[in-house]
Structure formats: C-alpha cells, structure tokens
Amino acid sequence: MLEVIDKGSSTESHPVPLLFVHGGNLAAWCWDEHFLDFFANRGFRAVAVSLRGHGASTLSQPLNSCSIADYVDDVRATVDMLGAKSMLIGHSMGCTVVQKYLEKRNAPAAVLMAPCTPQGIRRITLRMLRRHPRIVLNANTVGSSADFFNTPTLAREQLFCSHTPEPIVESCAARVQPESARAGLDLMIRRPDARPVTAPLLVLGATEDGSRTDGDVSAAARTYHTDAEFFPNMGHMMMLEPGWPNVAERIHDWLSGQGL
Questions:
Q1: Cα(50)–Cα(53) distance, rounded to whole angstroms?
Q2: Which residues of the chain have pLDDT under 70?
Q3: Is the dihedral of CA 21, 183, 66, 107 positive or negative?
C-alpha cells in the first residue's frame, strides 16, 4: 500500500493533477510542508506519493532490493489511481524516477528539481568519499545511506544552504531514512534515455546545492534540449528552503504557460 497525500481538486482552469515524487531518503512529507497547499490553493489537485518502503508506504521485499524500476511502478500505479495523465514533479532521485517513467509513458509536462547529471551520481559519491571516508565506510557496512544526512551538520552540508534557519535543518535531518542500495546502484549505472521523451520539461537547480557538483543540473537539462534555471541562496531541498515560494511560483507560472 502506497502512502498518498492528496490535496485540492482539479478545476476547469487546472484539470491536470500534479504528482510530486520525492528524492532518496525522503518521503511524501517533504512536499506536504509547503508545496501541496500552495498548489491546492491555486486550483490544482496536488498529490505526493511515498515510494515503497518510504514514509508510511508498505514494503513486500527488502528495501535494499528495491530498484528505480520498482519506484517507476509506484509512480505508474499512482497515476493510474488518479485516473488521468498527471503532470510530474520530481526532486533529486525522484527526477530519475520521473525520467525513467517518461521513457515509456507520456505526460502533459514534467519538472525536474535538482536532477543528477546524465552520468548518474558517481561524481557526487566520489566527492562524499573524499570528504567523509569514515561515514561512507560505515554507511556501506554497518549503517545506511541515511548516515550521509542524519545530523544537522551533514544535512546542512548536503541538503541546505548556509543561510537556512537551524530548525529547518534539524527537522529534516531527524526525518531522513535509509534508501535502497540497489536504487543507489541504479543511479550510477542506469542512465535515463531522453530520446523517447516528448513532454515539455522545466529543469530547476540551486546555486548552493551541496549534493550536486558544478554542471550537473545544466548537463541534465541539455539532455532534453533545454536550459536549467537556478535559484540563488538555496540548497538541495528547494521545497523546504525559506525561498521555496520562489520555486513554487516559477513552477506555477511555467504550468500556466503550458496551458496547464
């Protein structure tokens, strides 16, 4: 059973539901802090799903055996449950899930927030290994990938900018959870294929994203023959940073331009 947070309803002005897909180590709650109400109040049906094994979603297999393809199936099941083609908004790992979904299914449009480079997360992983070798060793032996983010210091380094109020950082650090090792491997080796994708895409990044190296987001945008847009003074968690209204407004304006 998948946890689905469903707010608002489709209107004549905005008949297409919005489906938000979270990143690794997170769950639907990250969208429910601000974004779902923002879009529901503007006449959208705004829905966030927790991928299997995340949040309150159940799991019928070991978490570490879950693949990106499994997560794509979760998105497909949620779209089918909504009963209409949905506009997809992915963040971080959720971008890859959305990209893989779009390889076989069409959508009216999609937004990628802080996507990986087309080469996956190898550069990011190597940078983490150089900075925190002991944490990486522990996470891959006796711990989990949550160890990369589960203290305020690490969460600020990887997920938030230096200006983010400490309570926001602490709250997120306390709520990160383990991610599937197989999904992490998929992010390294199973590159999204942009060739079948026909949906218009908006690609967004943050200038102080500690989870992305220089050029990652722009490289992802170029794959889809578009340009990335960047928000200043903002880290990886663009939906939780104090500047989140600017991101939401940009998405809203872009959707309006797409007739959605």
A1: 8
A2: 117-130, 132-145
A3: positive
Structure confidence by residue, pLDDT tens digits, 139-197 = 555 556 677 778 999 999 899 999 999 999 999 999 999 999 899 888 888 788 999 99
C-alpha–C-alpha distance, residues 101 and 88, integer Å: 10
**Contact indicator for 45, 72 with CB cutoff of 8 Å:** no
Q: What are the backbone angles phi and psi of residue 171, rounded to the nearest 5°?
A: -65, -45
Q: Is 161 left (phi over 0), alpha (psi -120 to 50) or beta?
A: beta
β-strands 3-7, 46-50 pairing: antiparallel
In this prediction, residue 229 carries a pLDDT of 97
Say which CATH superfamily domain 3-257 falls into: Alpha/Beta hydrolase fold, catalytic domain (3.40.50.1820)
Q: What is the C-alpha separation between 149 and 211, in angstroms, rounded?
A: 11
Among 23, 45, 19, 48, CA closest to 33: 48
CB of 155 closer than 8 Å to CB of 173 = yes
Global model pTM greater than 0.90? yes
b/e for 163-202, b at 16 or more Cβ within 10 A? ebeeebbeebbebbbbbbbbbbebbeeebbebeebebbbb
Helix (H, G, I), strand (E, B) or coil at 143: coil
How far apart CA 204 and CA 247 sit, in angstroms, is 8
Residue 19: closest CA among 95, 103, 78: 78
Q: What's the pLDDT at 202? A: 98
> How high is the pLDDT of residue 216?
87
Question: CA 34 → CA 29, 31, 182, 230, distances in Å?
Answer: 10, 6, 30, 20
